[in-house]
Amino acid sequence: MCLVRRPVWCADEAIECVRYDLEREDVGETELAAVAPVDVVFHLAAKMPDPRVADAGAYVRTNGLATLRLLDLAWRLGAQRFVYASSISVIGVPDRVPVTEDHAPGPTNPYALGKLCGEQACELARRTQGRRVTSLRITSLYGVGMPAGTVLPAFVARALASEDLAWYGSGDRTQDFVHVDDVLQACIRAAESDESGVYNIGGGCPVRMSDLARMIVALVPSSRSRAVPDGRPDPQEGIRWVVDIGRARRELGYDPQRSLADGVRGYVAAVRDGAAVRPWWGSPCE
After folding, report:
1. Rounded to whole angstroms, how far apart are CA atoms 136 and 116?
2. pTM for the whole thing?
3. Domain residue limits at 96
4. Domain count, the chain
5. Is 284 part of any domain?
6. Which of 156, 115, 108 is nearest to 135 (CA)?
7. Using CA of residue 211, residue 217, residue 220, residue 221, what is the dihedral sign?
8. Mean pLDDT of residues grouped by 10 in the chain (286 residues)?
9. 127 located within any domain
10. Is 266 among the domain residues?
């Protein structure tokens, strides 16, 4: 069963979708009875990053306070496990690498602040109530259907159009990309594990922007694109996302299976196919 704020498209017709807004403060017993009982809650809802939205309060309400409400709702539904999709962005700018779960958080935008509030709500329930709650700090997620505005899909689109792929600055800024299939694996591992707490979930292989551009050009052999420097400075020049996923490996049994090259190859094929890239907010799942 899936709680959704608006109609969505589901790949699996067996999934039942129930309309619900996490910003609501009250839930009737009749509504609870329609959903219960529940074994595990996967909290994947969030107000997504939007540079046009500067109101930090909106993110704290949607990603923070709503998580508190969902935690309460989960226990009322009888859930024994709660898995929260957090974000590595709660760290802000790393002051040391590799980034472990012990790195002090320092959000630098409203979205990251909201995510950290949700994460702290989970930790409050885990530490004071003994709840089995796990927060997964996901790195740079990618896969079919991802938003088009980030660097990886932008590079792929340019390669398919035989346009040059240009990186800012030195091209040495790094990101840790993790495929959606591996994030799914992490969610299931967390739900099945006796462990709880905060875990980094990444692909385990950080890549420089210049190397990412070259990789994508190589994976689109029909392209006439070149991987070249843009010439303009990178406002994030000094950032190196080298994320330690050792705790998730040891305690959850998480082991990323999709290499970046394999994942990008599949994404390129899907984008070429066109029909395979279907937005999740399409036809309602009913």
Report:
1. 11
2. 0.91
3. 2-273
4. 1
5. no
6. 115
7. negative
8. 71 73 66 77 86 82 89 90 97 96 96 95 96 98 88 96 97 97 98 97 97 97 96 95 98 97 96 65 44
9. yes
10. yes
